[in-house]
Design brief:
The protein is α/β, with parallel strands linked by helices. The protein has a single domain, classed as Rossmann fold (3-Layer(aba) Sandwich), CATH 3.40.50.1580. It has six helices and eight strands. Helix 2 packs parallel to helix 5 and helix 3 packs across helix 6. The chain starts with 8 loop residues before the first strand and ends in a 9-residue tail after the last helix.
Length: 240
């Protein structure tokens, strides 16, 4: 997609369904079909990008976006719930993320926390409540491991860290956004409860989550970013 076609506000996702639904909703062109990192922009200047899966891809797209310098970036991702209270279909607005993926170490030392932009999350939380839904806050653990559900030592570490959920991108997006001085946030949808014997994600269970909650997930993201564009206060950055 030509640089001039990117909007001031960006939605990031891992799922083709989100991008296709966005394009159908706004009757806009999808650039890069059958290629990595497809993108589409509506008439209001909101762009959605399917950047793929994993922390390496998350870092890549957050670096590439510096060519456009968007005013806000919101990640719409799925996560595994690590608490019995985080049921499938719940929304999570992370207050921070544990950097267990390794990629972010190429940007800042391990001591630097992975944090979202508070002002961006404020608009997202308002939209969730307006839709009549509750949400959880807490710390998300980001990992680059694909198969860990039966690793008891890893599970014990997760419990000790009291994380609310686990995913593969959030910490990277927060850290690389911080490094590149981009306002960033994440709205995560709990798609499975991998710490329970019958809670590990399957193709069937993931399809059910997509059918039941993904459209609302996307709509909240669209409305939050549109409202920031219309009336949001400028999100200022400090130079380090």
């Amino acid at each position: 997609m030509p640089l001039r076609e990117f909007g001031d506000y960006i939605l990031l996702t891992n799922f083709q369904f989100y991008l296709n639904h966005f394009a159908e909703k706004f009757s806009c062109r999808v650039y890069g079909r059958e290629k990595p990192m497809q993108a589409a922009t509506n008439d209001s200047g909101l762009t959605i990008i399917n950047f793929g899966i994993g922390s390496a891809n998350a870092a890549t797209i957050m670096d590439l976006l510096t060519a456009r310098q968007p005013k806000g970036v919101l990640f719409l991702g799925k996560c595994g719930g690590l608490k019995m209270s985080t049921e499938i279909g719940h929304f999570i607005l992370p207050i921070a993320a544990v950097r267990g993926e390794g990629t972010s170490n190429d940007y800042f030392p391990p001591e630097v926390p992975a944090l979202p932009s508070f002002k961006l999350h404020k608009f997202v939380s308002d939209k969730i409540v307006q839709h009549g839904h509750d949400y959880r806050t807490g710390v998300v653990y980001t990992t680059n491991r694909r198969v860990w559900e039966h690793d008891q030592d890893f599970l014990d570490r997760l419990r000790q860290m009291t994380c609310i959920a686990i995913d593969m991108e959030t910490a990277t997006i927060f850290i690389v956004g911080h490094y590149n001085q981009l306002a960033r946030g994440a709205l995560l949808l709990v798609s499975d409860i991998p710490v329970t014997p019958d809670g590990v994600k399957t193709e069937e269970s993931d399809t059910e989550v997509t059918e039941r909650w993904s459209e609302l997930h996307l709509q909240i993201g669209i409305e939050a970013m549109a409202e920031i564009g219309e009336q949001g206060e400028k999100i200022k950055h400090f130079t380090y």
